[in-house]
Amino acid sequence: MARSTRGLTPPAPASGRLPRVLQDVATWTTVLGAAGCAGAALWRAVRSRPHPATRVLLLAAAAVVLAGAVVTSLDGGPRWQVAPLAAAVLLALPAGARSARRGRRGPRVLLGAAAVLAVGAGSVAVRAFPPLRLPVPSGPHPVGVGEIAWAGPATDCPASGLLAQVWYPAAAAGGDPGPYLGRDRDEARRVSAALADAFGVPPVLLREAAVGRGRAVPGTPVAAGRFPVVLFSPGNLGVRRQNSAWATDLASRGRVVVALDHPCDSAVVVGPEGEAVTSTAGGSGDDARDQADADRRVGVRAQQLRSALDELARRDSADRLLGGHLDLGAVAAAGHSLGGAAALRAAAQDERVDAVVDLDGFPRGADGLDVPVLVLVAGRGTGDPGADARYARAVEAVTAGSPDARVVEVAGASHLTFTDAPLFLPPLPGLVGSLGREGAVAATARATEEFLADVLGPR
User: Which of 269, 351, 359 is nearest to 306 (CA)?
Assistant: First the structure.
């Protein structure tokens, strides 16, 4: 990725947006229609002389499912969650086509029962994998979004150019939010597929992230004034948009959030011209070797965060959108997991960083840290008491020299609670915690904003 000297680049605007209320109504109408269809079919199958109205109900419910499936596919294409509901209709129609003669109802009863089970599976899928919806930002500002690209420091990765997503307070509301995971839907699907491959899950499970939208409007003018800056590094294999809800909320409260992708470390980095750099990170099975590699990657990430400050200083003087709006005398470094470790190290190495927010990241090589620090710790832990104890000791050691160290254990939180994952993954406590979809985002944003308001000043 070549160095860009242009202004902040807005992602492509979204198109074909389906109102959220309509999407909800269509989805749950489809579920109810499938349930009615399966119920009517099973009733006709077990009764020797069912009431004629059940046939009308069967056909009407099938039509409702068809219409609902079409409506839910208008925004982002067909939803796989609806497939079991469609299967329920295909099973129900032959099961309830006509009343069975005495002694010959068995096959139709089995089809009807299978239709009921398919409705159950579809209902679970719809509940577990809902459309991605970022919470409404809590601050007074509307939010804009764009990206910056620059050369970055030389690393072992062949593609050393850096990309960052920038969320900022906007001058006025209005406009369509951009896609969640990319500049456009095509890039969003590429990023989603890369994340699925990196974490070993079927791509279909991240479908809602691939077609979802954020809350920020691409390219809208920045609000008047100068705003503190929050740098962000994502987790292991993570991408710069993984904490969009958190970043959008901070921007609505008067902060500029600059989130980096890390080439050869993030699952994939898609450049301005569509070129992709995938991750080369991976475990070797040798703990000592893997720990050394993690330390090395944290060092590279910290160097890239510091490079972002250099680039922002240049853009504050010349960028057509950001110029004159960056308060580089009030800078926080933040990160999730491995990114949290990078934020700690960048702050220890660079006096321009005034505070750190570590979202459940194990500290690595941040000796001498002497700025305010917030560490949010997952209350559910790792499931390994020994690992949790080592983490606690490392946090205590790295925060010992901080003038304002706040270590907050978030009850009910898991490691992914501090990302956008609760918004589109199944609500399994061991996976995304037990704070609820929007509750997880709110807890992280609220704690971060309270800390930043104290150490960098309220907005």
Answer: 351
- Amino acid code (one letter) for 383: G
Nearest to 89, CA basis, from 55, 115, 126: 115
d(CA 311, CA 290): 31
Sorting pLDDT into bands at 50, 70 and 90, what band is 61? confident
* Helix boundaries (H) for 212-257: 244-252
Q: Where are the alpha helices (DSSP H) in 73-134?
A: 83-95, 106-128
Q: Do residues 75 and 18 make contact, with C-beta atoms less than 8 angstroms apart? A: yes
Taking alpha carbons only, the member of 115, 84, 81, 79 closest to residue 97 is 115
Q: How far is 451 from 459, CA to CA, in rounded Å?
A: 12
> Quick check: 8 pLDDT over 50?
yes
How far is 141 from 166, CA to CA, in rounded Å?
A: 15
Reading across the β-sheet that carries 405-410, which strands appear in turn?
Answer: 217-218, 143-150, 162-169, 256-260, 227-233, 326-336, 355-359, 373-378, 405-410
Asked whether the CA dihedral 205, 207, 210, 212 is positive or negative, the reply is negative
Closest CA relative to residue 58, chosen from 45, 40, 84, 85: 40
- For 442, other C-beta atoms within 10 Å of its C-beta total 17
Asked if residue 326 lies in contact with residue 308, where contact means CB atoms within 8 angstroms, the answer is no
Q: Which two tokens stand for residue 122?
A: 């579809």
- 20-46 and 53-72 are packed helices; what angle lies between their axes, rounded to 10 degrees? 150
Q: Give which of 167, 159, 260, 277 is closest to 215, Cα–Cα.
A: 167
Instruction: Report the alpha-carbon distance of residue 199 to residue 202 in Å, rounded.
Output: 9
What domains are there in the chain, each with its CATH number?
20-128 (no CATH), 143-455 (3.40.50.1820)
Distance (Å, rounded) from C-alpha 164 to C-alpha 158? 18
Give the C-alpha separation, 403 to 372, whole Å. Answer: 6
- Give CA–CA dist 340/362, Å, rounded: 7
DSSP β-bridge partners for residue 270 = 276
Q: What is the pTM of this model?
A: 0.89
Lowest mean pLDDT among 34-48, 334-348, 358-372, 380-394: 34-48
Give the C-alpha separation, 261 to 191, whole Å.
12
